[in-house]
Amino acid sequence: MTASKRRAEEYEFNSPEVNACPYAFYEAARAECPVYPLPGQSAFLLTRFADVYDAAHHPETFSSHRPILGSGDPEFDAIRATGYPEVPTLVTNDPPEHSRYRKLVNRAFSVRAVAALEPSVTAIVDELIDGFIDRGSVELLTEFAMPFPTKVIGNALGVPVEDHGHFQRWSDAIADAVSTYVTRERALECKRSLVEMQHYFAALIEKRRVQPGDDLVSQLVTARVEDERPLDVPEMLDLIRIFLAGGNETTASLLATAMFLLLTHRDQFEIVANDHRMIPAMLEEALRLEPPVQWNPRIIEHDAEFRGVTLPAGSRVLLGWAPGNRDPEKYGPAADRFDVRRGTSDHLAFGHGPHFCLGATLARTEARIAFERLFTRMTNIRLAVGPEQITFNGAFVRRLNHLPLHFDKADQA
Question: Does residue 2 form part of some domain?
């Protein structure tokens, strides 16, 4: 006898159970009410692909403007006063203001600019693999997936290697601050970390004014497009915050999660291991099935009707990248299956509309090179523990807690 499925209301959003595996909740919410009201909150979760896509393309209703963490709270304001003004640039802005910033930074993340980074990205991958290749084992998350994008974005920003250690702490603070589901103590800690980050990069910005190079900070300092005014320091600091968050946490999540999916779907693993040309397709399927960013918040600008549900002005709507990516109306009855031959790249993992991920080309390039080198230098890759011992966490950015592996060194390694 098959157990009956639970109703969406029987799950508590952001509970440890849902954080560990949210997909049963997403499925229930999608079936019962695709514009799902989150109990106890003035918030809704969009769960269907078409709805999420539509909302992402209508910022005049689903606005990215949202209050600064702790705004109006004396304790938060006191910490903020020790740093630089927090201004909305890309993530918390809407067109036409958003368009200005996008034009000023697009060139730094163009296909051509990312292609120029490929030799240095490959060198970083091989340097990290060198650190464990002779051992036959690796904790992939902490020894590879996390330090790899940290080194890439650190080098791109022109930050000395000895300072890269700050990045993960700052990235974690940025992710937690955006999630809004943290304790007050953690939120205050996040605010202090962000101010620390501001001071570090403000000093670097001033150095680049005097002696610009070819790094991202220098490009922000010298960015000019048509008659747009140059970026000021607070604007540059917010853009660097976005680069740092997007360049670390999400890429680390993609690398570890994609490997875990392959190792728990051995038929798919063999397809990719035997034909490295399948790596890009595999990564797109991993992004679809397990997007690092589960959802993004929007604020309703004015009372709106959406799928027959009234959305009051000021309420929050979570654009469900993850539930939309498993919508059977879009991907068929096997939407929950990992299939590297599915052939899709129109998923929601990088968002859609004006806020489509600025660093998507870089993330795809990093992940492709990482798996090409891992599969070239390692064979017989396998989990060092049972798959049931591998756990996830995170309501906003979903990531593995650890991924211990065993492997054999390839002859050409």
Answer: no
Q: What angle do CA 154, 90, 200 make, to 5 degrees?
A: 35
Distance, C-alpha 110 to centroid of its chain: 19
For residue 30, tell me if it sits in a domain: yes
Q: Report CA-CA distances (Å) from 375 to 76, 115, 120.
A: 47, 21, 19
- pTM for the full model? 0.92
Say how far apart CA 4 and CA 14 lie, in whole Å: 23
How many domains does the chain divide into?
1
In a domain, 1, yes or no: no
Give residue-wise pLDDT tens across range 271-318: 999 999 999 999 999 999 999 999 999 999 999 999 889 999 999 999
Q: State which residues form the domain around 269.
A: 8-409
Question: What are the tens digits of pLDDT across the range 263-276?
Answer: 999 999 999 999 99
CATH number at residue 149: 1.10.630.10
Cα separation, 301 vs 77, whole angstroms? 25
